Amino acid sequence: MTTVNDTTLNKSGTAPNKSGARADRTTATATTPAVRLADIAVRFRTKRKDVTALSEVSLDVARGEFVAIVGPSGCGKSTLLKLVAGLLAPSAGEVALGGEPVRGPRRDIGYVFQRAALLDWRSARRNILLQAEMRGLPAAAARARADELIRMTGLDGFEDAYPHELSGGMQQRVALCRALLHEPPVLLMDEPFGALDALTREQMNVELHRIWRETDTTVLLVTHSIPEAVYLADRVVVMSPRPGTITELIDVHLPREREYAATLATTEFHEATGRIRELLGAAGAHD
Ligand SMILES: Nc1ncnc2c1ncn2[C@@H]1O[C@H](COP(=O)(O)OP(=O)(O)OP(=O)(O)O)[C@@H](O)[C@H]1O
Prior knowledge:
The protein contains 10 helices and 11 strands. The protein is of the alpha/beta class.
């Protein structure tokens, strides 16, 4: 485990590469990050009060990197994902995807939420294909990609089932397939497994990590589970209570292939989860 404070990262933006080794600083600055948040502030003005949700947040996420975001409730984690998706404009600072400033809703991202939000009257396959219909993608290619994702997520045999015939885990798999159908370079996940039982959640963690390894997707995952963050991520962003700032960035030095039980038994896993707990505990959060 290596910890880097946000001030250091603001300037260097270094990030681990796919092999788990750290890219050297010169290479990292020469490479355009998949996601860049530069000096972000977000203020909400409501009739009753003004809320500063995020303040001085800077973060570079490398292409193909898996970053988990943890922090106390209300510290601005969902707000941060909305900025990347272009669903919200920052009050100050710049957001860029692949070097291009984000100026409005982005179609080239995938988004998975806590609730799968499937259409009840459509089968699993037709829920996945909705993404293609909304984007006007060629039907044959979309069907082939949907079949590939169905296989990758172990949904074979349930393609024609309706949402009420699927378990919570299966519904989230359908939502994941739908989010990946158009092969987005960036996948945003907001507490995607929060409504699942502990065992299904573990299985989904293992599957998500395998799918991420098999694709080149950059992932930003918001989670309240410290073990989930450390098991899945290359780096964990730990946030402070509102106004959310980055308290610390934790590099997770685990091998790319991560067998679940063996990973949880490693010293690296214990050190990283311990450090995050300490930081969140010090901030008064008990996630
Ligand atoms: N549209 C909005 N208008 C006003 N305030 C908002 C709006 N969206 C978010 N907020 C406020 O901004 C802060 C951050 O909200 P956000 O949902 O990003 O937090 P979070 O870290 O994702 O929380 P949780 O972990 O509980 O889901 C909260 O205080 C919230 O009330």
